[in-house]
């Protein structure tokens, strides 16, 4: 019996040992298969991965091995690596990617061609385990012969709307003769400064284009992908030479209309409108509420956007929407930021008998950036203003004088509009407006900056290298787009005046074909883009004129540098002059 017990104990011990071994082996296997993760704790990791060593070294000649290795300073996300390794030029060389801790191993599955410069390229979308991207692409150049080609091409890509740079924009480079239906010979991605670099190129004739390569297959699919040419259709690269394509402003037009996706009735007159994206509306915007046969039953008016989700806005109808009745909605004068009109994609919705219990309260006002001397103060409320206390409790302080019977105000549905008494606000006086907030049972105090004529400034634009006598179109706006100016001229200078002391952005282009819009060019057939530039962060000071020079990149030379230079102002007796070249 004791022997049996001993055997049982030994058997149980063996089972325990085997279980521990099984768990240990499972953990080891799991660790070997999973992407390593950096230890947690400490400050957040904001730095992207960097290559600290390659085998072989960059610039190696007479290379004959079947693999190369990249060692990073931290663990990388393996999926991002697999999707962002390429071999240039495009020789259809199959390869396999493996990992050993922080090292990426690229193994070639067939022999490399003789006497050829090969570039193994790591794209900027490679990330570490915290999803931090590389700051720029990394190229490892090798030659299977005695000579390493060292020609280079540089380009810069900027956003046509903002003038800002974005990493990851793709430039395709083709050797002549070009076949745009095939794969590009070389592809470069922009870094955080918007610069794309091609290196280790052989001499020859080339052509470059920017492509919105949606599916990342290095092929321009002209039917579905946007592309733009550079100013030069093609160029000749000398042996070990350098060529600068200059700056290309790219425009990706938004042609997708916003969709009204849902209507919710919060009460018999209050609607909650949900859209596919944020929309804006004109002062005369309406929502036509119709029955299922298309006959208009009433009209609703937009009130304000939901703060936590600007794709949602609220509206109120003139008449109740009857319970049990079905309705459709037709928006008028609603657009997205690109000007696409709001479309409807919903089933008919049913009315409601719920009374409107929404509290009346102020939501916003239009004086965050100040008011012009003749501009009215407008306060937007949460619903149609149906309480006389709003008008009865209005107080206006003009300097030291208080008015409890200000004569020039009106209520326009949900907007309280307060206007100056004598067409303009009094110069040199401070104003305070106290409007009633029924929700809080107290006055809301508004102290706007009112820009008098002597406080407004101006910008004088000096255009350096435009074609004479052809129209120039200048668009100027502040950062919030509350002030916008659009003008056409033909001289080399123009002054935009009556501007509040804010920061502005200017877009300038030359309308060569005089069609009133900027044409970004055509790849095939080739048509170069019209001259274009963007100037950011132009300051205007009270009572001064800022002199700003603007020039078109690529007009005089293809070698263009557009550093961000802060505007420096030099005060004069009647003018504040700044020089800021694009």
From TrEMBL:
Residue ranges, compositional bias (Polar residues): 545-557
Record carries keyword Nuclease: no
Region Disordered, annotated ranges: 543-582
Domain SbsA Ig-like: 45-139
Keywords, alphabetical: Signal
PROSITE patterns membership: PROKAR_LIPOPROTEIN
Pfam family, one: Big_5
Domain of life: Bacteria
Protein name: SbsA Ig-like domain-containing protein
Lineage: Bacteria, Pseudomonadati, Balneolota, Balneolia, Balneolales
């Amino acid at each position: 019996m004791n022997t049996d017990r001993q055997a049982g104990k030994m058997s149980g011990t063996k089972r325990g040992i085997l279980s521990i071994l099984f768990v240990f082996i499972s953990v080891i296997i799991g660790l070997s298969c999973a992407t390593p993760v950096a230890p947690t704790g400490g400050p957040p990791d904001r730095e992207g991965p960097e290559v600290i060593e390659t085998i072989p070294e960059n610039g190696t000649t007479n290379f004959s091995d079947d693999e190369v290795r990249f060692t990073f300073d931290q663990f990388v996300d393996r999926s991002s690596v697999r999707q962002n390794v390429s071999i240039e030029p495009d020789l259809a060389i199959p390869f396999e990617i493996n990992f050993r801790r922080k090292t990426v191993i690229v193994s070639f599955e067939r022999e490399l061609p003789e006497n050829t410069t090969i570039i193994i390229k790591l794209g900027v979308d490679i990330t570490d385990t915290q999803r931090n991207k590389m700051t720029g692409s990394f190229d490892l150049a090798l030659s299977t012969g005695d000579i390493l080609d060292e020609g280079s091409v540089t380009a810069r890509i900027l956003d046509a709307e903002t003038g800002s740079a974005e990493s990851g924009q793709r430039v395709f480079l083709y050797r002549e003769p070009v076949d745009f239906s095939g794969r590009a010979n070389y592809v470069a991605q922009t870094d955080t400064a918007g610069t794309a670099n091609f290196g280790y190129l052989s001499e020859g004739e080339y052509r470059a284009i920017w492509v919105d390569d949606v599916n990342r297959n290095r092929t321009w699919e002209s039917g579905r992908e946007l592309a733009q040419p550079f100013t030069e259709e093609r160029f000749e690269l000398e042996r070990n030479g350098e060529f600068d394509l200059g700056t290309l402003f790219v425009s990706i037009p938004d042609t997708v209309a916003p969709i009204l996706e849902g209507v919710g009735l919060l009460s018999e007159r209050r609607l909650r409108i949900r859209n596919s994206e944020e929309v804006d509306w004109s002062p005369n915007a309406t929502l036509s509420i119709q029955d299922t046969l298309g006959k208009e039953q009433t009209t609703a008016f937009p009130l304000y956007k939901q703060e936590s989700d600007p794709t949602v806005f609220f509206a109120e109808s003139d008449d109740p929407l009857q319970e049990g009745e079905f309705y459709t909605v037709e928006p008028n004068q609603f657009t997205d930021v690109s000007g696409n009109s709001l479309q409807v994609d919903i089933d008919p919705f049913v009315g409601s008998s719920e009374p409107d219990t929404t509290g009346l309260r102020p939501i916003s006002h239009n004086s965050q950036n100040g008011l012009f001397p003749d501009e009215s103060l407008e306060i937007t409320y949460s619903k149609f203003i149906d309480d006389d206390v709003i008008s009865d409790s209005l107080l206006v302080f003009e300097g030291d004088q208080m008015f409890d019977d200000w004569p020039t105000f009106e209520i326009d549905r949900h907007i309280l509009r307060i206007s100056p008494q004598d067409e303009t606000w009094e110069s040199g006086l401070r104003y305070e407006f106290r409007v009633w907030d029924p929700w809080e049972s107290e006055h809301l105090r508004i102290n706007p900056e009112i820009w008098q004529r002597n406080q407004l400034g101006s910008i004088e634009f000096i255009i350096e290298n435009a074609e004479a006598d052809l129209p120039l179109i200048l668009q100027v706006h502040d950062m919030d787009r509350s002030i916008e100016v659009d003008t056409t001229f033909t001289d080399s200078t123009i002054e935009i005046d009556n501007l509040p002391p804010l920061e502005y952005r200017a877009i300038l282009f030359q309308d060569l074909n005089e069609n009133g819009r900027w044409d970004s060019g055509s790849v095939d057939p080739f048509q170069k883009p019209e001259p274009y530039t963007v100037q950011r962060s132009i300051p205007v000071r009270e009572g001064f004129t800022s002199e700003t020079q603007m020039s078109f990149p690529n007009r005089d030379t293809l070698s263009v540098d557009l550093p961000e230079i802060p505007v420096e102002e030099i005060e004069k007796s009647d003018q504040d002059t700044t020089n800021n070249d694009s």
